[in-house]
Amino acid sequence: MSLETLGATIKFALNQEKVLLEFFQSIQQYKKNENLKEVIDKLAQLSTKNLKRLKRIRRENTTEMILEPIKGLEKSRFIFVVEDLKEIGELEVVNSLKNYLTKIILFYSDSAEKISFIGEVSYVFEQFKERYQELLNLI
Predict the structure, then answer these.
(1) pTM above 0.70, yes or no
(2) SS3 per-residue string spanning 5-26
(3) Rounded to the nearest 5 degrees, what angle is found at the Cα of 111, between the Cα atoms of 63 and 2?
(4) Which class in CATH covers the domain with range 6-136?
(5) Which of 29, 72, 99, 133 has the highest Cβ tally under 10 A?
(6) Does residue 19 contact residue 51 with C-beta atoms inside 8 Å?
């Protein structure tokens, strides 16, 4: 399924950020490693900020959402489903974390390119991508 409008893209981004935030909160128990603890805390803060910014963008860009089509964003490339992490170890959690971050980075990168006709939104998506990439590099 394609994300064919700015509205659909932002709605998808909001959903994925919520899933990420829930994931970050669910892995609090794996924060024995001090470096990982710091990164998870920063990721949760980033996701919370991103949610607020996305909601503001949605409010401020209503006209563009209705009028501007987007082509070439296939939702299936970016979806991640959080697995049950109750019985797995820290290595599996870290691998899942890297997988989810890689997909959200890809989503924001591709989306920023496809919505470049709305400079402000494209710029925000680029910022999201860069911040997630910085934190991924710390893991």
Answers:
(1) yes
(2) EHHHHHHHHHHHHHHHHHHHHH
(3) 80
(4) mainly alpha
(5) 133
(6) no
